[in-house]
Amino acid sequence: MEKTIFEIPKMDCSSEENLIRMQLDGISSIKKLDFDISNRKLTIFHTGQNDEIEKSITELNLGGQKLATEQTELTEFEENSNQKRLLWTVLAINFAFFLIEMTTGLISQSMGLIADSLDMLADSFVYGISLLAVGGTLIRKKRIAKLAGYFQITLAIIGFIEVLRRFFVAEKLPDFATMIVVSVFALIANGFCLYLLQKSKNKEEAHVKASMIFTSNDVIINLGVILAGLLVYWLGSNKPDLIIGTIVFVLVIQGAGRILKLGK
User: Fold this and answer.
1) pLDDT surpasses 80 at 139
2) What domains sit in the chain, N to C, each tagged with a CATH number?
3) Could you tell me what percent of the chain has a pLDDT over 90?
4) ∠ CA 121-137-69 to the nearest 5 degrees?
């Protein structure tokens, strides 16, 4: 058994990790991938020559280059079921609050809640691509990524159009109370996710670190929607809700772009 270490300068989040995983999927000589996103390093445990592996890494245009290849005594690798269970829990919470925020956002006419729901959905897609497609073919994984990315962009564009319409057409004020209450519950849910991730024995793993980053960003967005709800009440205007909605829609499109990279 050998291990080859690659430096990948453009690998800075779980999207690039998933991209690499899908690129290397199907290379039978690979036994394990060990990602160190913070240091932009990837260690690949494999048998035989690494020419095909190195070529696949180079084709991604992430600046990947081989640092070293050395022998290792490791021969067996166990999949960490606890880590998968943890990520499934975070995915389930994100998707549940996508449904809750989308429903209450439509009822209360809050673009902030609707946009936040799409951000929750984007996180669910990122986790789902790596978890739901485990064992699937490369083509299937890329198809899932493309569908997810385009679906996100479509929803975000519809959201932008609705925000513009509400900027120029007099609309009923969003229900600030619903905005605040739902966002507080979403904040509690994301705080619970962070707690689970922090106490995980696998918190140094790439997927868990990525989940912590996503969830931390969700906490900030939740606070933004709560602030927007308070401003709607104090100012008697829907502009704070539209502004926070616009900001979150931009984040959703950026997330969709990363998801689409997985489908290339």
Assistant:
1) no
2) 2-71 (3.30.70.100), 81-261 (1.20.1510)
3) 18
4) 100
